[in-house]
Amino acid sequence: MNEITDKLAPCPFCGWHNIRINPHRVGGYVRTGTRYQTVCSRCKSRGPIKGTEQEAEEAWNNRVK
Length: 65
Ligand SMILES: [Zn+2]
Known about the structure:
alpha+beta, three-stranded antiparallel beta sheet, 25% helix, binds zinc ion, Toxin_RalR, Restriction alleviation protein, Lar family
């Protein structure tokens, strides 16, 4: 079980609960300033790109409401 998924609302497009937060790589490299983006593991819908994992979570949840 991954506790991270409990903090994220279900996907607004397909209703899937397994939402991940992935680093958003710029130019294929992970470096200082890496941003984070929520991604539905089923339909691959993506949330807003944010500077921290927490912000990405909040943006996703706000979008779902
Ligand atoms: Zn989905």
